[in-house]
Amino acid sequence: MSQTKLLTLNLFMRPPLVHNKNWDFKNQRLSYFISKIIKKYDIICLQETYAAYTSRQKKLLHEAANHNFLYHAISPLPKIFSTHIADCGLVILSKHKILESTFRPFNDSVYPDKLAYKGALYAKILVNSKPLHLFNVHLQSKHPTKSSKKYLMYRLTRRKQLIDLRNFVDEKIGLAEEPGFICGDLNVDGREELKPPVFKDIECLDDYEHLSKLLLRGKKVAMKDLLRWKYGFSPATFGRINEKGEALEKILTMNHEICADEALDYILLANEDRTDLKINVENTKVEPLSTEGEVFTQISDHAGVETSFYY
């Protein structure tokens, strides 16, 4: 039985005029991603790959088809006259047939995330003649602030979105004896408890605890955090540092975040105990997607998370 290889990545391909440094090398990075990276995988979940005000997403979908990604699902653009000005940048690419796809908007988000039509993207994929459920998400970000009240608001909003996601997963998978993956940039720092609290007047070290309570320990569908399952801890995917505490990515990441050492990106496995899907532990890891020979050293400011499985 052949393996199926899955990648989740915040591609950091934001709309025009939104950038960190040197316009984020968006066109160059997209070309590199298409020519050098996508062919290594069978299913890819992307975040921050926007359709609004740019043709980059269309280019990606067109070129991906040339690499045998004949199926895709994307988050929709907002309706005219809505309060949103952009889609939320979610893309699923698949070499396997997508039987069904839908988008479920979140009930709440906070500025500036609120400008995007945020939600969860779902696809039911046929892998070796068997159904696989896939959810792609990008939850509420935290933004630089000196206000503990605002910082807490970001966290509470993210938890509301986790509840929305949990309800969506329960609805789509329910009691079916079929596996699922929840992939994406959850913006829950799994390394938070290793650091001093950002504020002393609010609880700042319980985000992963709430992720576990609201999402992983579901009554209908149990889930497993694959990286924590493998390592016993959450390895960093953003603002990664080496053993000397030095930043590993400096070209795309803002200076105040280059040593953030945060675990924000996840692959969660749902319904493992009810199915015959088997994870290849060795191939489950953080993948920096380094770009040797380019002016940018990684394909994104985030590292990807990948796994492979037999099904």
From TrEMBL:
Belongs to the neutral sphingomyelinase family. Keywords: Hydrolase. It holds the Pfam family Exo_endo_phos. GO terms for molecular function: sphingomyelin phosphodiesterase activity. One of its GO terms (cellular component) is extracellular region. Coiled coil: none annotated. This is sphingomyelin phosphodiesterase. Residues 34-268 form the Endonuclease/exonuclease/phosphatase domain. Its EC number is 3.1.4.12. InterPro entries: Endo/exonu/phosph_ase_sf (IPR036691), Endo/exonuclease/phosphatase (IPR005135), Sph/SMPD2-like (IPR038772), Sphingomyelinase/PLipase_C (IPR017766). The keyword Hydrolase applies. It comes from the Eukaryota. The keyword Iron-sulfur does not apply.
